[in-house]
Each structure stands twice: as structure tokens, then as C-alpha cells.
């Protein structure tokens, strides 16, 4: 089986669960012997140069099968990476894109004038589009060009920005298209959907032979909000990557205060204000606790203000965006992880928390609550109950112990290997003529 | 020759209401939900089953006999929410063919944590049965048939019982059959009746299971199995939850029809008869001594305590509860004592069971909570409040935080 996969960022350059999911799934497919051509947008050479060597369409003649970081090269024997020069980024919105594009332009000018890198695609700064809509379609065009030299059986596209590319490649090659829904416009924007994004999502789902949703929660949205027939939509849960480098280095900080952790993008979708409201309630009955908000996002400043406004500023710490070892370290310090997401198609972070022996509270409005039984669950809006449960976890060691033991055991059953097997089955089904 | 000995366990816990750490009142129990469940089960099970069994007793002119164990917490609820059920139990008692067994008033695990509390609850239950039905229990069954040698000794020492009932678990009987009367190890006077779990569970659990090779089970078929014991057993002890009739096995499974025909079919064989536990005890001499050094119960396949005390939350919750005993009793406050005792009902700990939680089976069916964790949190919040009431009765309030002090102070003010 050969797959042309339109994906996103790979570790260590990840800004959220999408990158983690693409990485986990691709790695597991590799282990099943599936040949994957992994295509992803690349901003500029300088950002990636030292860590990951990626190929642009223009550079393809010089390199064949591909190298990544050294360890990845061994692990990902069946994976070939291809990149397309584009300012597309996971979690972009039409608004943030405008800001990014200015930054992109500036960087482009710097790198081209300073180094004149041979790998740099020729043609200067004209090959990107001025708005997200056009850029997504330009990306599709580039992907089609790139696909011409590739051999594959199935096209697999992850989230809306790659759907036009997926459609184009599938059309041009006559191969079946599988789209993978990690989130929908309704998750990101609530009821204020961007019509352009919605239309692209719907077209991708309509044109696809199969739609993969990361949870039944999301499958429901795909069916009811996008009008996709149910028999075309399958659920494949995400997995969790057990950290190979998992070490038992003890946390040396002795501390009086317990730590309750929020980790994720600080955006409307993630419910940061509910976390802070609950924190306020918790502090009414218990004192020796700190709330840590790890992540960044468009509601970060507003959240800092809200914490101050609620009079709990001294009890809430903001770390900014964390990655890699810092994430593991913060998990190691935490006594409890809370994910109060308003709308969460899946939610990989709670699995990572459990993997790090941290008990979790998750919102019932999350896909991951379908697969986790040994987690505390609340409605995201029910701050009273959220606080009630936070206090209980902090107060009763037997509760922490039971949640941790069972949760850690449960999370081991959620393997990327199973997700990859299901993907492979779906690929095979799309190849059988109806 | 085998006697068929039916005993039905009838119990409903007083379920807690959703009680958060921010709640601060003494309304711990969910009146609305308890009333609704009590009425529902009354209509599906208690009323139709009582009426049917009453008719059968009349029809067979005293040759059909049964026993009940009614918990105190159930009887209290029936009185409040379904008095008509209570009157049908009165009618059953008046036939003289129905025996009422002794147990702990609150369906508690007190035997494992406080012998004194255990004895008080057994006495309290005996008094209630006497006042309602005019008979004093002579046969004792502990909550969930929990048993070990010490229980046998304690029951004998209490002096008011002739026998004790427990599970006929394979690992205590070995090659021996549950269809005889035994003597508990160390006892001189009292006898022991063992549940025939195989035949009991054929009715209680397998009756409606279409994958079971013996499905559908008819009264005739079941009677043949009982007849087959003739010659190698004296009594077939069929012990089960009363809710089997109509609630666990719904009416449309044919469970009522089965029961309606069973006495007639059993009595077709001239050697068979029905006896109540006390009559079995009076009729047969013990065949041997049964030694139960470790605690057993009738629950799950393990037949142990793991359904109530299998994880740290469960053992922590019950330990903290019984730790309060002295303080509660010293406070000399009837309402406080009753609330504390209602928290002892074993169901509260059963809800916290994580065993099989992932499979969502029988445990889940009886569970008012979404998860064992929710159940523990709720229980501990109530217990925390109870503890503060206790403390405020005794000494000046020791508070952990300003709000708690305020809460405790509010509680302390008599209304």
C-alpha cells in the first residue's frame, strides 16, 4: 500500500495535537510496511534547516528517499518526506494568516538576500498568495505538480487546509481520497463559522471516498452539520506515543502547593475561562494550590487579565508555549490535569497526562471522553462541578492513586498501531470497486 | 426427599444526592430519586411478586413456604413511598408460611469494622421485624452473605439465632455439597445453611440468557433438576435478590410464569417439599463442620470482598466512616447517628467499584453514578460534612480554612 499523505508539522515543531497525530499515525503506518509520501507545508529554510532536511518540489531532483533527523531516518524507513514552500500553518485562520504573511514576507526577504541558499525555490516572493483562501488553492496546485512524480494508491488529507490539495491530487491521479477530520470549523469557531472554511471542509468530505473522524462526537458533527451520509464516515481514535525516553528522574522540588495544570492552546475552543472560574471556586475552600496555564493562543492576554480580575492572579502562572522536554517536566510536576474544552474532537493531551501518571479531568464535550473511562468528566460550563472534582483530587490521595493506576493502564491500550491498522483497512476498502 | 428452601433478599439503599464540596446542609439523601426508584421497583417487582406468592401459598394450602430478608432501610422507604407493599408483606406474614430473617438494619459491612456497631444494628433490625410482622428472626444472614468463622462464633454468642446463612462457595466446600445442613467451625449450637449457587443463579442470572444451553428454563425442567438431588441432599437452598422477579428479569422473560408453575411442579414429586430456613434447621442435623478462615461473600465470580473493598477509594471511604464511630456515639444526637448509619449501607461502596468498570456490566446496571470516581467524591463530600457536624458537637471548631470555619459555624447554630 502506498499513500500520498497531505499532513502537517512533525515534532519537534508542533503547535498542537494535529502534529502529534500526524506523527503518531505515520510512524505506525511505517511499521505496518505502508509506504507513505508525506507532504507538508514549509515556511522558510532557515527555520528548519538545522533540524530537519526537507525537500521542496524544486529540490526534488537532487534527492530521493528521505532523511529527517537521524533517529527518524531509522524509524521511518518507509516514509518519504516532501515539502511545499508555503506559509500555511496548522491552526491558521483567515485573520491570523494575514499577520503571518507579513512575517513570512519579512523572513523571505532576509533569507534570500542574506544566504541566497541554493535550495531556495526560485522566483522570489511571488509564489504565495495574499490570502488564506488563495494560498490553500495555490498549495493544491503545487501538490498536484509534486504528485506527478510519485507512485501511490490512495490520497489521505488531514484537516481542511489540505482538502483542496487532496481533491486536486485525487482528481488528477484518479486515486481515491480519504479525508481525516481532526477538527471542524464548529470546534474552532463555535457557531460563528467562516463560510469559506466550511465550504472547503464540506467539499473535501463530499469528494472523499471515506471520511475519518477522530471520535463519534466529531462523526456526529460531520453527519449533522455537513450532511455527509453516515456510512461514509468512520471513527478512528487517536493513540498516544509512549515516550521512549521515559525516565524516572525524580522531581527534586519539594513543595507545599499542589499544581493543577491546563495545557493546550489558549483559545476559545479550549475553555480557558472555565478553568479560571473553577480555580476561583477551588480557592474558596482550599489554599495550597497553584494553577498553571501552559500554552499560548489568542486568549492568552485576556486570560491573564481575567485571572487578575477574579483576584487569583497570584495563584495562576502562565508559562507560554511549551514543547518537548518542558512538556514532560510540567506533567511531572502536576498533580492534576484539567481539559475544560468547549468543543474537542479528540484531545490527545489527556492521554499524555495519563501516560505521565497525572490524573485528568476532561470535559464531556470531548472525543477523548468516549475512550477514557478512568478520568473524571464534567460539562465544560459546570464550573461548580469542575471545582468540586479538582478539590476532591487534591484532597483525597486514594482518588489520585486509583485514577492514576487505572488511567495509566487504560491509556496503554490506545495505540497508534491500532489506528494505523484501521486506516489501512479503510485504504483497502476504497480500492475495492464498489 | 429434598426440601426446597427459598429466601429472597429485599433491599434498596438510600441513595445520596449530588453533594459537592460547596454544599453545606444536612440533606444528604436524594428523596426524589429514592422515592421514584422505590415506586418503580414496587410496581415491577414487589407488588406483583408479593401478590403472586401470596396466591401460591393460599393455592397450595401451606405446602409452599418462603423466607424474606428485608433490610431496615428498605422497610423505612416502603413505609414512606409505597405503604401498599408493606401491607402485602403483612398479608404474607399472616399466612404463617413466611419466615423473616435477621440481618443488619442498614445492610452494612459493620461486621468487618465494628463488632459493637454490628450487634446494635442486628438488634435494631430484629426489633423492627418483631414490631412489623410479629416474629423474631431466628436465622441470620449477613450483608451480601459475607461470612467467616468469626461471624459464626459471634452469631452463636448473640444467643438469639439458630442458624447462619452463607454462600456455598466451591473453595470452602471442596467435594462437599451445599445441599446439607452444616455446623460453622467452632460453634456448638447454631447450624449453617449454604446457598446452592448453581441452581439459584439459573433463576437469578441465567433465566433470560438466550445463549445459555438450557434456555428457555421451564418450571418442569427446573423441578427435574431438583428431583435429581433426591438421595444425595436434604435441602436445596435457593437464595436470591427479590428483584430477580420482574426487575432483573423483566416480566416479559416469563419469570413470573416460571415462578407461578414452580411450586406445583416441585410438589408433583411426592418426596419433595418446601421449607423455610428455620424449618430446614429444625429438620436436619449437621452433616459436618465447615471451616471458613477467610471472608467470603456471594458477589461476582470471586466470591470475596473485592466488590466493596477492592480499591483504595473504597477502603479509604469505609475506614474514614468507621473512624467516626466513637465521636458519633458520644455526640448523642439521633439524627447524626442515623445519617452516619445510612452511610454504612454497602451499596455506597459498591458504587465505587472499579472492577469490571471498563466492561460496563452488572455493576453499572445498579449504579446511579457515571463512574466510581464520582461516587467516591460524592460520598467523601458528605462524610466531610458529617465529620464537621460531629466536631461541632464536641469541641470548638477546628477549621482548615476561613470558609470551612464559616460553614462549620453555620452548622453549629441550632435551627
What features would you describe in this structure?
The complex is a heterodimer of chains A (434) and B (415). With 434 residues, chain A is α/β, with parallel strands linked by helices. In chain A, 43% of the residues lie in helices and 15% in strands. In chain A, α1 (17-31) links the parallel β1 (2-6) and β2. The radius of gyration of chain A is 22 Å and the shape is globular. Residues 45-73 and 114-126 of chain A have low confidence and may be disordered. With 415 residues, chain B is of the alpha/beta class. Chain B has helices at 31-59, 72-81, 83-94, 110-113, 115-133, 149-158, 170-173, 197-204, 219-229, 255-268, 277-283, 306-309, 312-323, 325-331, 334-342, 347-350, 362-365, 372-394, 402-412; strands at residues 3-10, 66-70, 98-100, 139-141, 163-167, 183-184, 191-195, 235-241, 245-246, 249-250, 273-274, 289-290. Chain A binds chain B through residues 281, 284-287, 373-374, 376-377, 384-385, 387-389, 391-392, 395-399, 401-403, 406, 410, and chain B through 20-22, 311-313, 315-317, 354, 357-358, 370-374, 376-377, 380-381, 400-401, 403-404.
Please report the first level of CATH classification, the CATH class of the largest domain in chain B. Answer: Alpha Beta
Mean pLDDT of chain A: 84
CATH class of the largest domain in chain A: Alpha Beta
Q: Uncertain regions of chain A: pLDDT < 50 for 5+ in a row?
A: 45-73, 114-126
Query: What value does the Rg of chain A take, in angstroms?
Result: 22 Å
Main beta-sheet strand count, sense and barrel state of chain A:
7 strands, parallel
Secondary-structure class of chain A: alpha/beta
Runs of chain B in which pLDDT lies below 50 for 5 or more consecutive residues are 408-415
The number of helical elements of chain A comes to 16
Under the CATH scheme, the architecture of the largest domain in chain A is 3-Layer(aba) Sandwich
Number of domains of chain B: 2
Based on Cα principal axes, name the global outline of chain B.
globular
Total beta strand runs of chain B? 12
Q: Helix and strand succession of chain A?
A: EHEHHEHHEHEHHEHEEHEHEHEHEEHHH
